[in-house]
Amino acid sequence: MTRESTDYLRRLKAALTGDPATPLAFLCNFEVETQWARHHVGLPAPAAAPTAVVQRMEELGILLAGPDDLIVVKNAPDEGYLRYLAEDLGVGLPAVLVPERTSEDRPTAEDLLNSPLALDRLSRLGRLGTRLIPMGTSESEEKLAVSAQVPLAVPDAATFERVNSKIYSRRVTEELGLPAVPGWCCETLGELRQALAEAAAVPGSVVVKDAYGVSGKGLVVLDTPAKADRLLRLVERRAARTGDDRLALVVERWIDKRADLNYQITVDRRGGVRLDFVKQALTERGVHQGHLMPADLNAGQHALLRHAAAEVGGRLAADGFFGVAGIDAIVGADERVHPVLEINARFNMSTYQGGITELFHRPGDVALARHYPVRPAGPIGFDDLRRALGTLLSPAPGGRVIVTCFGTVNAGATNTGAVNTGAADAGGDGPRHQGRLYTLLTAPDHDRLAALDGAVRAALAGVIQPREDS
């Protein structure tokens, strides 16, 4: 039986448009931070181009969108994967729009602007009431909304850029009187020089972050005076060369932590704030790995997060923002909660998990949303993966695995239109591309969840060779 839209999606539509039945065109532009960052000076390092994996993550939006919606993707989803979602999971799938002219080196919104047939289809939907909902708005999505005459369901690019700066996050946290990680905002070379001098007066490491860095990019830990001096010299030389001493950085003291947290709020057009969920975030070297649900928190810690959610949401509304915001927080080794590490006022990884979690995470169970890094010898089809995972994809007393994004498995592979059913026999010969398999695991308790995680690793090892560092 195919399900209709989830309550999670209906609430989102009501918050953004006033009508829970509004059709939406989803554009999951995971590279949007790089667009905002172009107007700001960060750490002296080359800008990283979106990887093939990041581009294929657009497919995550299929499980957020509903049967009355549309999702725009650069690469057509695997037909076997779509059958699995519709027939095995009973998910009501959105329509899929693939621009006829795509390029790996430009955002999908720009692909649409260069694809007359796809742009015309989007325009026709706009005339019928569809609204455009990107992960976050940049200048590209603004141009698309105007060209296709599809109104944005979220704010403009200037608003998104303003509220997504880590400098904005620090200042809001301090102004609201929330417990903040000790640190400094640096918008000039002089401010960075002063911040590093003050930091050096107290033993301990500091971390320097680009105002628009994401997933471990644009971040450096300074754990010795020599590293701090080296960074400062690099910034000074760049400023001397360019004649521009502007910066967009934050410097924060390193906090020993027990857990990373992520909680999501939705701010509606009238300024109302809803706390959607709190999850324990799993990270490795600053890079997001997944989420554990529910988070291991006591009542007082939950209460502080609810208070922070209301305060931050109110401030975002006052500053012209409405939509989804994910807020990163940490629980220190001393159990003290720092409720606002940064505000990501856009769709987050956990946003895309909302609908599928509603459908399959039963009260009292535990769940793990995570990806498995994989290195297939060549492109494989979803049906190959399905055979490898076997009964793990079916409901069982020990838990269940749900595949939430398959396209990223083949990201970076050559000849992606072909299916290599002999990947298991490759024996490690030849080059292997690095992909990811995104999943949601559910189980009655943590022990069975860990066992299920191990079973997935073992099953994948037999067909698509997980990387050694997975």
From TrEMBL:
Pfam families (UniProt xref): CPSase_L_D2, PreAtp-grasp
Domain ATP-grasp per the UniProt entry, residue ranges: 170-373
Gene3D superfamilies per the UniProt record, alphabetical: ATP-grasp fold, B domain
The protein's name in its UniProt record: ATP-grasp domain-containing protein
GO molecular function, one term: ATP binding
SUPFAM superfamilies: Glutathione synthetase ATP-binding domain-like (SSF56059)
Keyword Disulfide bond: no
Tree of life domain: Bacteria
Keywords carried by this UniProt record: ATP-binding, Nucleotide-binding
